[in-house]
Design brief:
By secondary structure, the chain is α+β, with helices and mostly antiparallel strands. The protein has two domains: 173 residues, no CATH class; 163 residues. Helices cover 45% and strands 20% of the residues. It contains eleven helices and 14 strands. Strands 2-6-7-1-5-4-3 form a seven-stranded antiparallel β-sheet. A five-stranded mixed β-sheet has the order 10-9-8-11-12. A hairpin with a 2-residue loop joins strand 8 and strand 9. The longest helix has 34 residues. The radius of gyration is 25 Å and the shape is globular. The two termini are 14 Å apart. It binds zinc ion. The site of zinc ion has 8 residues, from loops.
C-alpha cells in the first residue's frame, strides 16, 4: 500500500444538549433540504426548457454551476443567510453528483427530498474538543459512543449529521495513519452468494437468519398501511417498524464484522461486483431464460440482505490485500480440471464436472475458481490447472 494515510468512519450518537440547539440543528438540516429542493426545481425547469427548445444537449450541472445559483438564492433569502454557508452549500455537491450519475445513466434522476430523516454534512474545519463536535453557528454537541473514539490520533476531516427516527447521529470521517497489516501469505477466494459466504478453504459461513425479524417488519408494515396517516397509532407502529429494521441491520453488520475478521489474514479474492449482474444469472445457473425473473428479484433481495458491498468494504480495510476478479463462469468451471460446462451444474447446490467427475458444493467450487483467478492476477500469469498446496508456497514468496 503506497498511501500512508487512510480514512475511517465512526458513527456516534449526537446529543444536541438542549431543546434550543436541537431545534436549530433541525432548522439547519431543513435548510439543506430546502436548498436541495429549490436547486432541483430550478434545474428541472432548465432541463424542460432545453427540451422544449429542441436543444440536443441538456444543460450541464456541476457543483460549480449549482454553487453559483445557490449564491443568488442566498442573496434573496434572508433566513438562509443566518445559516452556516458551507454545510448548506455542500448539499449541492451531492446533487451535482446525483445529476452526473443520471447523465452517465448510472442512476435515477435526482429526487425532491421530503421532510424527515434529514442530514447535514460539515465538509471541512471539523472541530472536536472534549468529546464535543462543534456545529457552526449552533455550538458544541456531545458525541457519544460505547468505547469512545477508537482513533484518538486521527484527524477528523468531515462529519455527516443525520436524524434517524428522531435521534441524531454523527458519522465522523477520520484521516488516520495506515497501519501495516501483517500478511500470513494465504490467498482465499470467496464466493458471495445469496445468504452465505463460501471460501476456497472449503468453509461455508451462512448469514444470520433474519426471517423472524423480516416477518415482523412485514406485519408491522401491513398494520401501518391500514392506519390513518398522521395518526398517533400509526406513528407508534412506524417506530416499532423502524426498530425492527435497525435490529436486522445490526445483526447483519455484526456477522459481516465476524466474517471479514476471520478472512482477513491474507489476500482475499472477491468477485468484481460490476461484472456480476452481467455475467451471472440467478444463482449462477443459466437455464430457463425468462422464467427466473421472480427468483432473481428474490436473489437481489437476499444479496441486499447479506450486504455484499459492506462486507467488501470491511475486507478492503481489514485484509492486507483485496483483489477483485471477473466472476464470469466461475460457477460452471471445474476447479480441478478447468472444464467449463453448464451441464456440470446439475442443481443449485451441487457441482459435478462432466469431464473429470469432480464433485463439490457448487459455491465451494466457485470460490476455488475465484481464488485461482485472483492468483493469476497476482502472479501475472494464466490460470494454473490445480494443486492447492503448491500454490500456497508461491503465495508466501509473493508476500515476502
Ligand atoms: Zn473437472
Amino acid at each position: 500500500m503506497a498511501d500512508d494515510t487512510e480514512y475511517r468512519q465512526i458513527v456516534y450518537r449526537l446529543l444536541p444538549g438542549s431543546r434550543e440547539k436541537a431545534r436549530r440543528l433541525a432548522a439547519l438540516a431543513g435548510a439543506c433540504r430546502f436548498v436541495w429542493n429549490a436547486m432541483l426545481d430550478q434545474q428541472e425547469q432548465l432541463v424542460a426548457a432545453a427540451r422544449l427548445a429542441g436543444a440536443d444537449r441538456l444543460p450541464g450541472v456541476s457543483f460549480f454551476t449549482l454553487g453559483k445559483a445557490f449564491i443568488q438564492l442566498r442573496r434573496i433569502t434572508p433566513w438562509l443567510q443566518e445559516m452556516p454557508c458551507a454545510p448548506v452549500r455542500y448539499a449541492l455537491r451531492y446533487q451535482a453528483d446525483a445529476w452526473q450519475r443520471y447523465f452517465r445513466e448510472e442512476g435515477g434522476r435526482p429526487k425532491f427530498k421530503r421532510r424527515g430523516n434529514d442530514s447535514v454534512t460539515l465538509p471541512q474545519d471539523i472541530r472536536i474538543r472534549d468529546g464535543k463536535l462543534h456545529v457552526p453557528k449552533i455550538g458544541p454537541m456531545t458525541l457519544r459512543r460505547r468505547g469512545g473514539n477508537p482513533y484518538p490520533d486521527g484527524k477528523p476531516v468531515r462529519a455527516v449529521i443525520r436524524q434517524v427516527n428522531g435521534k441524531w447521529y454523527a458519522t465522523v470521517c477520520y484521516r488516520v495513519a495506515s497501519v501495516e497489516r501483517p500478511d500470513d501469505g494465504t490467498v482465499t477466494g470467496i464466493d458471495m452468494n445469496a445468504g452465505q459466504v463460501a471460501t476456497s478453504d472449503g468453509e461455508i459461513m451462512p448469514a444470520p437468519d433474519t426471517g423472524r425479524l423480516e416477518a415482523r417488519c412485514k406485519r408491522l408494515q401491513r398494520r401501518m398501511s391500514r392506519q390513518k396517516k398522521g395518526s398517533r397509532r400509526r406513528e407508534h407502529i412506524r417506530r416499532r417498524h423502524a426498530r425492527a429494521m435497525r435490529r436486522m441491520a445490526m445483526k447483519r453488520r455484526n456477522w459481516q464484522h465476524h466474517v471479514s475478521r476471520k478472512l482477513a489474514g491474507g489476500t482475499v479474492v472477491v468477485e468484481d461486483l460490476n461484472t456480476r449482474g452481467m455475467t451471472r444469472s440467478a444463482k449462477g445457473t443459466v437455464g430457463e431464460p425468462g422464467t427466473g425473473v421472480r427468483q432473481k428479484a428474490g436473489l437481489n433481495r437476499a444479496i441486499l440482505a447479506t450486504g455484499w458491498s459492506d462486507l467488501r468494504a470491511m475486507l478492503a480495510y481489514k485484509a492486507p490485500r483485496l483483489v477483485a476478479v471477473n466472476a464470469a463462469q466461475t460457477s460452471q468451471t471445474c476447479a480441478e480440471c478447468g472444464t467449463v460446462d453448464a451441464a456440470s451444474r446439475p442443481s443449485q447446490a451441487t457441482f459435478k464436472c462432466v469431464a473429470c467427475g469432480h464433485a463439490d458444493h457448487a459455491d465451494l467450487n466457485a470460490a476455488r475458481n475465484i481464488r485461482r483467478r485472483g492468483q493469476a492476477r497476482l502472479h501475472g500469469e494464466g490460470a494454473l490447472p490445480s494443486g492447492t498446496p503448491m500454490i500456497r508456497e508461491t503465495d508466501r514468496r509473493l508476500a515476502a
